[in-house]
Amino acid sequence: MSIATEKPSPPATADRLLRREFAFLVSDVARLMRTLTDQKAREFGATRAQWAVLVRLERSQGLSQSDLAALLDVQPITLGRLIDKLCRDGLVERRPDPADRRINRLHLTPAAYPVLKDLQELGADMMGSVLEGVPLAAIEQIVEQLAIIKHNIKRDLQDAQDERAPGQARSS
Length: 172
Known about the structure:
With about 170 residues, this protein is mostly helical. It contains 6 helices and 3 strands.
């Protein structure tokens, strides 16, 4: 397509510029948080992914590997390698599901709790530094608004999936 036949883009309004800046900032903050968390986790010989697994298991002991993979939004094979390492390190154990012998349930071992305590202190220090100068009321508002945005994105992703696969039931 030649330049002469291209449709001119609509003029940039303050609203559009603000929304675009928001998208860039959210992306930048998320990337920088991952980088910082990776650095901090390495101080304890862990990875951000291992940290996430331990925290999720602390909240929900007995998850299946597939349920945990869905919660963490990672591929089951990737999670399997993480769990294998955490099992070798003595932090996680697989226990057979009493109702379905094909499923193993994941549980933290007693050795995981001191590691989690250290990681929680590290996380609290890191977030104290990251959120320095941001009032608590603003943090509460940001959390509420980001939760709405997350919901909207999940809805839009589900809608797009439904459009690609007509006839399949929509999950809530």
